[in-house]
Amino acid sequence: MSLLDTPLTRQLGIELPLICGAMYPCSNPELVAAVSAAGGIGVVQPLSMIYVHGHDFREGLRLIRRLTDKPIGMNVLIERSSKLYLDRMRRWVDVALEEGVRFFVTSLGNPRWVVERVAAVGGVVYHDVTERKWAEKGLAGGVHGLIAVNERAGGHAGPRSAAELWEELADLGVPLVCAGGIGEEADFVAALRMGYAGVQLGTRFIATDECRAHADYKQAIVAATEADIVLTERVTGVPLAVIRTPYVERIGTKAGPIARWLLRGRKTKHWMRTVYALRSAWQLKRASLAGGAGEKTSKDYWQAGKSVAGIRAVEPAGEIVRRFAAAGSTAC
Ligand SMILES: Cc1cc2nc3c(=O)[nH]c(=O)nc-3n(C[C@H](O)[C@H](O)[C@H](O)COP(=O)(O)O)c2cc1C
């Protein structure tokens, strides 16, 4: 049987078990559409769609539909600290369902309300997890599969390697997707051989023609080696994978003592997380669109994971997907 025929491809009705993961601020409709059109599946990040790329949410989904009729997904970050945000997220999930989206990737919090809405119309929900205790919580909420985010991932990386996560989660009885460190075809084939039902890539798809991130950011990803990726707490309050620029060297990667104290307090931690979320949303948007974060004078951050090791050029997203498909179809 082909390595490319997995529970993920069957559940989602896609050709290749490859997800272009949600990325704030790098997911734009054209990128999502390009990955889906080529046979993988692109995942929409609503905050990125609306606040970075300037689309009304429904219109953005319709723009993707005009570019491809293949399935797409939506990321639902369940952040409990703001009621306003949660209300908006509920509305966006309803809009996505109305527009025909049937694949949802939840992160943080309890995914039950998403599963209830999505499963009612025959859709599928996968939950992002970094260790077994979150996986069990997600499964208690009814999710159909898990995205296992490992220590090499871009965004908020986990503490375990891909192999350790596989060992820890394989007996849970749902399909597992490997997220983190997949930059080239060999990484993709290795993850499928390990037993994963698919992969989720982020960083690889920033260095594409369709991604609207600044050319400086894309070139920094192409130029970076694995050793250039560090985890910083200074952007969101929890470890975030970024490229080590002159600013990161200078300022370090630990949160300041006051922030750390506020993040620990039972009463102050939700408030502090909201402060971080709002500030980082603005900082990361500016950094991705304006470029220049590699300059000595810049205070911006470029997010990227250790998959930079396998990224050698800025390319069309569809070419990458097709190359992965070719490698997967000849491997066994
Ligand atoms: C710039 C960037 C932004 C990200 N933003 C999100 C996000 O908003 N929501 C989410 O669930 N995951 C987010 N991620 C994680 C990706 O969806 C994916 O799991 C991860 O990038 C996989 O690791 P890789 O970068 O090594 O391919 C982000 C990753 C990157 C690189």
Number of helices: 15
Total beta strands: 10
Please list the strands of the largest sheet in the order they lie side by side.
1-2-3-4-5-6-7-8
Order of helices and strands: HEHEHHEHEHEHEHEHEHHEEHHHH
Helix content: 40-55%
Give the termini distance in whole angstroms: 8 Å
Radius of gyration, in Å, reads 18 Å
Poorly predicted regions are none
| Largest sheet report | 8 strands, parallel, barrel
Q: Mean pLDDT across all residues, rounded?
A: 93
* Basic shape: globular
Strand content: 5-15%
Hetero compounds = flavin mononucleotide
Class by SSE composition: alpha/beta
Structure in a nutshell:
Helix content is 44%, strand content 13%. The chain has helices at 7-12, 29-37, 46-52, 57-67, 83-98, 112-119, 132-140, 162-169, 185-194, 203-206, 215-223, 246-251, 257-264, 269-290, 317-330, and strands spanning 18-20, 41-44, 73-77, 103-107, 124-129, 145-149, 176-179, 198-201, 229-232, 240-243.
Walk me through what this model shows.
The chain is α/β, with parallel strands linked by helices. The chain is built from 15 helices and ten strands. Strand 1 (18-20), helix 2 (29-37) and strand 2 (41-44) form a beta-alpha-beta unit. Helix 2 runs parallel beside helix 4 and helix 9 (185-194) packs across helix 15 (317-330). It is globular and about 55 Å long. The site of flavin mononucleotide has 28 residues, from strand 3, strand 8 and helix 10.
